[in-house]
TrEMBL record:
Keyword Mitochondrion: no
AB hydrolase-1 domain mapped to chain residues: 78-280
Protein source organism: Adhaeribacter radiodurans
Keywords associated with the record: Hydrolase
Name of protein: Alpha/beta hydrolase
InterPro entries to which the protein is assigned, alphabetical: AB_hydrolase_1, AB_hydrolase_fold, AB_hydrolase_sf, Epox_hydrolase-like
The organism's place on the tree of life at top rank: Bacteria
GO molecular function: monoacylglycerol lipase activity
A GO cellular-component term linked to this record: membrane
GO biological process, one term: acylglycerol catabolic process
Length: 340
C-alpha cells in the first residue's frame, strides 16, 4: 500500500511540475535578440508557428500563423480568429490565446502578409487582399465558421473580412479599431516615398515614445513590443520591413471602412478603451482645432455602434488603445459576456 501511495505522490509532483512549467512558459517574456530579420527568426511565439504558401501579384509569399487547439476542444463551437494591429504581431495575443483555449475555443492567429513572421513583399496592399489571404488560411484549416476579433488595424481588416465573408463570421468583436473616422479629410497626405523615409529613420527611442501614447501609464512588460521592432531596425533586412510598413500605412489611409459599417449583419461588439486618442498620421496634423477633435474614441465608439444595427458597446474607463495588454481581465470579461 505504501508503494502505491508513493507512486501517487510522485505522479502528483510530476503533474504539479508540468503545470508550473506550462504556466511559466505562458507568462515568461521570450528572449529578444539584439538583431531580428524581416521574419523575426530567433524570436519565439507562444505557440508553434506554421506557414501557408501564397502567390500574390506573381510573388511567392509565406503567411505565418498559430493554430492553438485546446486539449478539451469543443468542436461544435466556431473557431476564434485574432487579427493584430499595424505595429504589432500575432504574439501579442499571448494572454488572450491562453484564456480562450481554457474556454475550449480553437484559436487561430495569423500574421498578415507584411507583418510579424510573414513575408514582407512589395505589393499593392489592400484590406481586400489581406481578407482573401485570411479566408484561404481558414479554408486550408477546414474552418467554415469563425468568431473574428480584430484590434486596431486588425479591426479594419476584421470589418472587411466580415463584409466579404458574412457566411463565415458568426460574431465580430472590434477592439479599439482604427478607421472609425476617415483620416483623409483630417490628416495631410503623405507620399509613399516620404512615409518610407520616415520609417527608415525609426529607432528604439522613437518606437517607445510612440507606444507610450497607447497607454495611460507605461509598464515594463510593454517593453517586449518595443524591443521586437527595434531589433529589426538593426538588420540588413530593415529597408524591406520599412517599405512594407510604409505601404500598409498608405493602405490604412486610403481604404476607410467607416462608410460600410451599417452593412454589417452579424452580432458585433465594440470594446473601446476610453482614454484612447490614436490617429494614424497624427503627427502630420498641424491644425490644432482638427487635432483636438480627432481620435476621440468614446465619441467614435458611440457613433459606430449607432451605425451597426446588431451591435453593443463596452467602454473601459482608464484604458488606452490596447485593452488586451493593459487590462486583459477586463477585456476577457467583455469578450466572454458577448460570446455567451
Amino acid at each position: 500500500m505504501s508503494l502505491i501511495i508513493q507512486r501517487r505522490k510522485l505522479v502528483l509532483l510530476i503533474f504539479i511540475l508540468v503545470v508550473s512549467l506550462v504556466k511559466k512558459a505562458w507568462s515568461q517574456t521570450p528572449a529578444i535578440p539584439e538583431v531580428l530579420d524581416a521574419e523575426l527568426t530567433g524570436y519565439t511565439y507562444p505557440c508553434p508557428v506554421h506557414f501557408l504558401n501564397l502567390k500574390i501579384e506573381n510573388q511567392a509569399c509565406r503567411m505565418a500563423y498559430m493554430d492553438a487547439v485546446p486539449e478539451k476542444f469543443n468542436a461544435s463551437r466556431p473557431a476564434i480568429v485574432l487579427l493584430h494591429g499595424k505595429n504589432f504581431l500575432g504574439a501579442y495575443w499571448r494572454q488572450t490565446i491562453k484564456f480562450l483555449n481554457k474556454q475550449g475555443y480553437r484559436v487561430i492567429v495569423p500574421d498578415q502578409i507584411g507583418f510579424g513572421k510573414s513575408s514582407k513583399p512589395s505589393l499593392h496592399y489592400s484590406f481586400h487582399q489581406l481578407a482573401t489571404n485570411t479566408r484561404q488560411l481558414l479554408d486550408t484549416l477546414g474552418v467554415t465558421k469563425a468568431i473574428v476579433i480584430g484590434h486596431s488595424m486588425g479591426g479594419m481588416l476584421a470589418t472587411r473580412f466580415a463584409l466579404m465573408y458574412p457566411e463565415v463570421v458568426t460574431k465580430l468583436i472590434l477592439e479599439n479599431p482604427i478607421g472609425l473616422e476617415d483620416y483623409r479629410p483630417i490628416v495631410p497626405f503623405t507620399t509613399l516615398d516620404a512615409a518610407y523615409q520616415k520609417e527608415v529613420k525609426t529607432s528604439e527611442e522613437s518606437i517607445r515614445n510612440y507606444f507610450k501614447t497607447y497607454f495611460p501609464e507605461w509598464k515594463p512588460e510593454y517593453d517586449e513590443w518595443v524591443k521586437i521592432p527595434a531589433a529589426q531596425t538593426h538588420s540588413k533586412d530593415y529597408p524591406e520591413v520599412a517599405f512594407a510598413s510604409a505601404q500598409t500605412y498608405d493602405m490604412i489611409y486610403q481604404q476607410p471602412i467607416i462608410y460600410e459599417l451599417e452593412q454589417l449583419q452579424m452580432p458585433t461588439l465594440l470594446i473601446i478603451g476610453q482614454t484612447d486618442r490614436t490617429v494614424v498620421g497624427k503627427a502630420n496634423i498641424k491644425d490644432k482645432t482638427v487635432l483636438a477633435k480627432a481620435g476621440n474614441y468614446p465619441t467614435l465608439g458611440r457613433k459606430a455602434v449607432n451605425q451597426i444595427r446588431t451591435s453593443k458597446l463596452v467602454g473601459l474607463p482608464g484604458i488606452g488603445h490596447i485593452p488586451h495588454l493593459q487590462d486583459p481581465d477586463a477585456f476577457h470579461k467583455a469578450v466572454t459576456n458577448f460570446l455567451r
